[in-house]
UniProtKB/TrEMBL annotation:
This is Amidohydrolase 3 domain-containing protein. One of its GO terms (molecular function) is hydrolase activity, acting on carbon-nitrogen (but not peptide) bonds, in linear amides. InterPro entries: D-aminoacylase_insert_dom_sf (IPR023100), Metal-dep_hydrolase_composite (IPR011059), Metal_Hydrolase (IPR032466), Metallo-dep_Hydrolases_sf (IPR050378). One of its GO terms (cellular component) is cytosol.
């Protein structure tokens, strides 16, 4: 029987961590049918992969296309496709777009959407998935349930557990928390462990944005390790990093804490993004107590003279380094985009902390920044760490989004080729291991049983690219530039990219955990 697609003469890096080898791959319908010497075999379409690498499609497990709104306004997710990404896991950092028991619970998400208004007309996770399917998207989509989402949509721990379990029955892959939110405290640990018992029972993933990536980095990592140990839930720390020079020296110690836990059998790992600038909302730099609540609550505090004075005092004691904070997007005042807070402050003749508060008020909190706060040696060490995962921590865009006058973080356009062709080489990561960090390791962490490897009977999500030409070109000042070098991309055995061109039909599917 003829294959639907036959990939011939390629260098196969199959996701196992093993060395590359030469082989042909036969695809039938949506699955890989056969791997080996398939000369003489018939196929409806033959792809000559001579001098090209053939790998599993990349799996991005820290992705924000949902809360950023781009999943709905850029359903092609072209900036991800051109990187070789075939599957994204959303619902990260405590925030998901389902379940929605009451619409007002989503007001706090306005600060994340960079000006988009997500057209929410669903309540349950099942209805959310159905909306994505009707829309049609370019990549496969799976979601976690946000811990903060549960809190805003339920009044008691029993209701939160009910919503989580119902979401599991409708195909959720796990839960995420964000401990940097102010309303988390130790009293809630018992309830959290109850939620994690449900995650463990379902074989789900627990993703965590730690409380403090700066001066309290080590205790923040230790607390997550303790949760992973006590709950036995499979746990991944999202965008693992030490922020600020004062925390850089703690990075090795944090790895030591994780390594010791892993040696005890604790199921914990982490992902990193391959850049030295963070990308976050400016509001996240406020003291934790000041950013508690929905946007209206935060703006009310900023507008109150007494409370604002207290916020300014704490900001001044925190050492902002305004020259390292680049304004990336702003809802209303586009004149500040692309400029650093230090220069803006000097030009305006006011202290940077005061300017920061004014910018938040003018833009309704919807203003994002890039922070030059990370260490390259730490990045390379984290990327090389056995079992670590590479993720974008970004979202899918297309180049037309530049018309809105904002800057996307370049990781949304180049994280995976940047890791593959630059960071992995600097970190001296063997080729097989580098591919595993963007394919099988994130797939296994998420719980995907038939993706992440090139094996017979696995879903035919396949990336085919030129070893030297697969590169990123997006920069902080000019991020809307696609990666180059990807020749073909298959999603469920269908061509999404052919000879470097994105095809119009979208082949992404919703992945429901069973």
């Amino acid at each position: 029987m003829a294959f639907s697609i036959l990939i011939k003469n390629g260098t196969v890096i199959d996701g196992s961590g093993n060395a590359p080898y030469s082989a042909d791959i036969g695809v039938s319908a949506d699955r890989i049918a056969k791997i080996g010497n398939l000369s003489g075999e018939a196929a409806e379409r033959i792809i000559d992969a001579t001098n090209l690498y053939v790998t599993p499609g990349f799996v991005d497990i820290t992705n924000h296309s949902d809360v950023y709104g781009t999943l709905f306004f850029v359903p092609s997710q072209e900036s991800l496709l051109r990187q070789g990404v075939t599957t994204i896991l959303v619902g990260n950092c405590g925030e998901s777009l389902a379940p929605v028991a009451r619409r007002e619970s989503l007001l706090g998400l306005e600060r994340w959407t960079t000006g988009f208004s997500v057209p929410i007309n669903w309540n349950s996770l099942s209805e959310y998935y159905e909306n994505i399917e009707r829309l049609g998207v370019g990549v496969n989509v799976a979601t976690l349930v946000g811990h903060e989402t549960l809190k805003r949509n339920a009044n008691s721990k029993e209701e939160r557990l009910f919503l989580l379990e119902k979401s599991f029955s409708e195909g959720a892959w796990g839960m995420s928390s964000n401990f940097s939110f102010a309303d988390w405290n130790g009293d809630e640990e018992g309830e959290l462990l109850g939620l994690l018992a449900a995650v463990k029972k379902q074989g789900g993933l627990y993703k965590v944005h730690i409380r403090d990536e700066g001066k309290n980095f080590l205790p923040s990592v230790s607390s997550v390790v303790s949760l992973a140990r006590e709950s036995a839930a499979r746990t991944v720390i999202s965008h693992f990093k030490a922020v600020g020079r004062g925390a850089w020296a703690d990075f090795e110690g944090a790895l030591g804490i994780i390594n010791a836990a892993q040696n005890e059998g604790v199921a914990i790992s982490f992902d990193v993004f391959p850049y030295l600038r963070t990308g976050s909302m400016l509001v996240s730099l406020l003291p934790a107590w000041a950013r508690e609540g929905v946007s209206e609550d935060v703006l009310r505090k900023l507008g109150d003279p007494a409370i604002s004075a207290k916020i300014l005092a704490e900001l001044k004691s925190a050492t902002l380094h305004p020259e390292r904070i680049l304004i990336a997007s702003a809802l209303n005042d586009k004149s500040v985009v692309g400029k650093d807070l230090g220069k803006l402050s000097a030009r305006a003749g006011i202290e940077p902390e005061i300017l920061m508060v004014e910018l938040l008020k003018i833009n309704g909190l919807n203003i994002s920044v890039f922070g030059k706060t990370l260490s390259e040696p730490n990045l390379l060490t984290g990327a090389k760490y056995a079992g670590s995962i590479i993720a974008s921590d970004g979202a899918g865009y297309d180049v037309a989004e530049s018309r809105f006058g904002n800057l996307a973080h370049p990781r949304s356009f180049g994280a995976f080729p940047r890791f593959f062709n630059l960071i992995s080489a600097r970190a001296k990561i063997p080729l097989g291991d580098a591919v595993a960090k963007i394919t099988s390791l994130p797939a296994k962490a998420a719980g995907f049983s038939d993706r992440g490897f090139l094996k017979p009977k696995y879903i035919a999500d396949v990336a085919i690219f030129h070893p030297e030409e697969f590169k990123d070109s997006a920069t902080y000042k000019n991020p809307y530039r696609y990666a180059s070098g990807l020749r073909f991309l298959l999603i469920s055995g269908k061509l999404a990219i052919e000879e470097g061109a994105v095809l119009p039909e979208r082949h992404g599917v919703v992945l429901r955990k069973k």
